[in-house]
Amino acid sequence: MANQYPGPPPEQPPGQPGQNPYATPSAGGPADAGYGYPQGGRPGDPGYGYPQAGSQPPPGFPPPTAPPPPPPGAGFQAGPPTGGMALSLGDIAVSGDTIMTPAGPMPLKGAVWTATDMSRTEEKIPAHAVVLAIVFFLFCLLGLLFLLMKERVTTGFVQVTVNSGGRHHSTMVPVQSREQVMYVLNQVNYARSLSV
After folding, report:
1. For the segment 9-34, what is each residue's pLDDT rounded down to a tens digit?
2. Are 127 and 146 in contact (CB under 8 A)?
3. How far is the C-alpha of 98 from the C-alpha of 132, rounded, in Å?
4. Number of domains in the chain
């Protein structure tokens, strides 16, 4: 373990192969840019993928332009939102007079909302009740009363569907309790009341 620090051995002159790449350059100026500087390789040169000032588009491609506005009367045109978001069900949001979905905006007036409860509720004896029944059965027969303990577990989804303006969108809202199922169904009823 004669030389435990990186860099050239003391007898090697600077600038030769094997020199410490982290040492200050001997010329006194900034070091040449290396890894991390594409194209020109110097700090300040534009990097790869950045447009140059006054650059022309490649031949065969038209210059970029803004898309033309849709013709009037071509489907539902969402206006500016008149307020904050009224409600959100999965990826469906109601804001102002517009229903926003991944399929695009839909008019709120005249929308048809459908909710389908696809959840299931299971009732079972929890594991700790079985253990307590066995332990207390040995002491007295009252331990069997622990087997009367029940646990309700709800799993599944509520499917929410909206039809409006010639469009259709459906989403699945996950639920873990009967209270969440009722909350989603109440939200759908509120959306129905806004659609009238």
Report:
1. 556 555 556 566 666 666 655 555 55
2. no
3. 56
4. 1
